[in-house]
Amino acid sequence: MKRRDFLLDLLATAPLATASLAVPKLSATETAEDTLKIGYLPILDATSLLIAHTKGFFTAEGLKVAEPMMATSWADLIIGFLSGKFNLVHFLNPIPIWLRYNHQIPIKIIAWAHINGSAILGSKTHHIHSLHDLGGKRVAIPYWHSTHNILLQMILRHSGLKPVIKKNFEEIAENEVNLQVLPPALMVTALKAHNIEAFIVAEPINAQGELLADGNILRFTGDVWKNHPCCVLCMPENTINTNPVFTQKVLNATVKAQIYAQQHKAEVAQILSKQGKSYIPVNVEVLNRALLGYDPKFYTDPKAILHADEWCNGRIDFSPWPYPSATRFLVETMKKTVVPIRGQYLETLDAEFVAKDLVDYQFVKTAMERHKGWETAPGVDIEHPFTREEIIAV
After folding, report:
1. Is residue 42 within 8 Å of residue 273, measured between CB atoms?
2. Could you tell me which of 115, 166, 111 has the C-alpha nearest to residue 137?
3. 280-313: per-residue pLDDT in tens?
């Protein structure tokens, strides 16, 4: 990996990054560590890591675990992982694809962090009441290499709109939607300051936008791509290979935490909130909305939920199995997605190869055999729990 090429790529895809521009040291020969070091962004995608820590699931497995460390942006979290500051993180699903195949970073996906859990939110002040109202507007995304960017562009094209990347002074046509990257923590402020008219992001940012910034949920992403992955749990490949006992214990704890989170969402809201451990420093009211606020009778104008009865999912749910079909779909859809720097690696990247090479299935499957309860999550077929067909209904 060339330091200059990597840093230019990172900065181009996250211009607001505050991370130190140190040379990434993660390599195939890195020595596995005994202490679990968790890095996370303060969003509900990190729930399984935070619940496993606060409920003592990691220590019950005999692991020595440091206090989880909050990052301020995806770029910060990436740099922390590459520098060895973290050895367990949640990343947006396309990030490890980009890191492994465009920069040869030895990273592995070990499980999904959650399913669903994102939405497109528009400003009522700017009269954004439908997807068509996004024409000629500025929409923030959390990262170019994100499921959010991929899904948003797919939805926009279906709505007859063209996703573009233009500078602030450039004119935006009525059929164009100008995309820009903002760290999730800045999105609500940017919406209130009229620097953007809409955003797509993980929870609880959408709930904050609803309750604090006069926001309007236009569509929940889990109602477009059924039970889709968003963030995935990742570890260094060498840690997995050289310390399989350590890795298995990590998966045992995180799978147990996902089962617990799915079954105790109100308690999870309290634990993570300002009134609890403040892992996600927002009021419990916001987290209750983010975890439990998925009533189709409430979201009627616009109709943000179209498949409530037949899909039976929630606003956010927790299911650890990394379905290969979803990885394949993601790789193929990434090839159609507009980004500022399009690495040549995508042109020849084989989706079937990525599904086999990027994801380690053995540890999560063993953990799921030990801890039951995951089978009650939305979309799990009890007879065929490890395969599925991807369903997209824009």
Report:
1. no
2. 166
3. 999 999 999 999 999 999 999 999 999 999 999 9
Domain that holds residue 145: 118-227+293-311
In whole angstroms, what is the distance from residue 109 CA to residue 98 CA?
12
CB atoms within 10 A of CB 165: 13
What's the pLDDT at 169? 84
Long-range contacts for 381-387 (Cβ within 8 Å, ≥24 apart)? Answer: 385/321, 386/321, 386/323, 387/323, 387/324, 387/325
Question: Would you say residue 357 lies in a domain?
Answer: yes
- In a domain, residue 244? The reply is yes
Whose CA is closest to 315, among 215, 202, 214?
Answer: 202
Residue type, 2: K
Q: Which amino acid is at 249?
A: K
- Say which amino acid occupies 79: I
CA 167 remoteness from chain centre = 26
Task: Tally the domains of the chain.
Answer: 2
The per-residue pLDDT for range 6-39, each reduced to its tens digit, is 554 565 454 433 333 343 455 544 445 689 999 9
Tokens of residue 350, six digits:
């084989």
CA–CA gap between residue 52 and residue 111 (Å, rounded): 14
